[in-house]
Design brief:
globular; alpha/beta; 8-stranded mixed sheet
């Protein structure tokens, strides 16, 4: 494999706990544990964590935000582009096998201690063939998101409009598109003319939805490079994870040598899967307190940061092909609008992954901290912007809305843009405002739009020794 790093790697800084007494009922403990842990599940977070009002009413649009949306009397949405992460999924085969390993370890104890018994007797219902497939809850995520978007943008989501659907080739994304179409059918079924949206075609487009797979530099220098995740590996061996590991080992009455960071993390994720998929408070949640959860969230965020975020330039630069496609369609819609022609693609809905959204957000400069996330600055990053669970939970969505404002005072003000992340307005990095003139947005991202060429960005250096700075 090509060497992608030069010079020395960054440096790293190199108590068993008493068994918790059960002072409240198991049911009470589980409820408290889940409520304390659920905001720390990272990319395994349910969508309701970023929109708490949906727990009471899944079709609620929530409280109105200032500046949202642009005044309909002056501005009308011309085109909407939605990038949507698939809904809640089952664990991957790799995660299920790790959980099986941990479960067998606990079951193999001749006399499991009292605290370990709930886990030894827990029903291991996950099967390897579930392997990341869309869960029933994931279908519901998509159906309900479709209905909310139709309610937010009734002018665009109408039976008379054309909807363009595209998806990653992964089964969970294709199924998410189908579930979204079903929800859209439900939202529009009372409006004439009758239309069979559920059976409309979804284009498979991995070039845009899985751009990272087609970027040789990313695949070689990050995806398949064992040293690229150095900070993640260092944190697994660091004092924060050591404390969590020792605590879990003491609680389960197993030798510390039989556990590792990956097994502890899969136990934590099982708590999240049980909550997201089945809406139950799993016994696995009892293993962790809020401080443990913060450490395990940081471990997950480190991986996202170095593999999909700001860690290496190629992570985000590989997404410029998608970013440019968004603006290409906006330009086309504006040209059609100026020519008084119908907008050929008023609604574009694309279904991908956290790995689709996160690099794009980094490319645009969102959620960037002053200092990189590293293995040795956990405490310093307690209030970081880069928290993957708040950015890309299941069913996360990044929505670009182009408006035509026919009462604009100047030609520059005629076309304006808003961006929503998870159905909330996202302030633009260049202005901190929640609306931008389209021309200003193009100027701000001029370098990416004009000088980021996917084939050149993703080409491996012929010398095969790309430095970390170049990444």
């Amino acid at each position: 494999m090509a060497s992608c790093f030069r010079g020395p790697l960054p440096g790293r800084h190199s108590l068993p706990l008493l068994l918790l007494l059960l002072r409240v009922s198991v049911a009470q403990q589980r409820g408290v544990a889940t409520s304390l842990l659920s905001s720390y599940f990272g990319t395994k977070s349910r969508y309701e964590e970023v929109n708490q009002h949906l727990l009471q009413d899944p079709l609620s649009l929530g409280l109105p935000e200032p500046g949202y949306l642009l005044p309909s009397a002056a501005c009308a949405p011309l085109q909407l582009r939605a990038l949507i992460r698939h809904g809640t999924r089952f664990p991957t085969e790799k995660q299920i096998r790790k959980l099986g390993q941990l479960h067998r370890l606990l079951r193999s104890q001749e006399r499991p201690c009292a605290a370990a018994q709930p886990f030894a007797h827990w029903d291991m219902w996950y099967q390897p063939d579930m392997d990341g497939k869309l869960a029933p809850k994931g279908r519901l995520d998509m159906e309900q998101l479709a209905q909310r978007l139709a309610a937010r943008f009734p002018g665009l989501f109408s039976p008379q409009r054309r909807f363009a659907f595209a998806s990653s080739s992964k089964h969970r994304c294709v199924e998410s598109s189908a579930a979204f179409r079903k929800g859209l059918q439900l939202a529009l079924h009372r409006q004439p003319p009758a239309r069979d949206i559920e059976n409309e075609e979804t284009e498979i487009n991995d070039k845009l939805m899985r751009f990272f797979d087609h970027c040789e530099k990313f695949v070689t220098c990050v995806e398949e490079n064992a040293t690229a995740m150095y900070e993640v590996d260092a944190f697994k061996q660091g004092p924060e994870m050591k404390r969590v590991l020792e605590k879990i080992a003491a609680t389960l009455c197993v030798p510390v040598r039989d556990l590792n960071a990956d097994l502890v993390q899969v136990a934590f994720f099982t708590c999240s899967f049980e909550l997201a998929i089945k809406n139950v408070n799993s016994p696995w949640c009892l293993l962790f307190n809020e401080e443990d959860a913060k450490v395990l969230e940081y471990l997950n965020d480190l991986k996202q940061y170095w593999k999909r975020g700001y860690g290496y330039d190629i992570n985000s630069r590989s997404s410029c092909i998608l970013f440019q496609d968004i603006f290409k369609h906006f330009d086309k819609a504006i040209a059609e609008s100026k020519s008084s022609m119908p907008i050929s693609s008023p609604v574009i809905l694309q279904f991908g992954h956290a790995e689709t959204l996160q690099p794009l957000l980094a490319l645009m400069g969102f959620f960037k901290d002053e200092e990189p996330l590293t293995a040795n600055n956990y405490k310093k990053q307690m209030h970081r912007k880069f928290r993957s669970g708040r950015i890309v939970p299941y069913a996360s969505n990044l929505i670009f809305v182009l408006y035509h404002c026919d009462q604009a005072k100047t030609p520059e003000e005629e076309y304006q843009v808003q961006i929503l992340l998870n159905e909330k307005l996202l302030p633009f990095p260049h202005s901190e405002e929640t609306v931008s003139l389209y021309i200003d947005l193009k100027n701000y991202y001029k370098d990416i739009l004009q000088n980021c060429h996917f084939s050149e960005e993703c080409e491996l250096s012929k010398t095969n020794n790309t430095s970390t700075d170049e990444l």
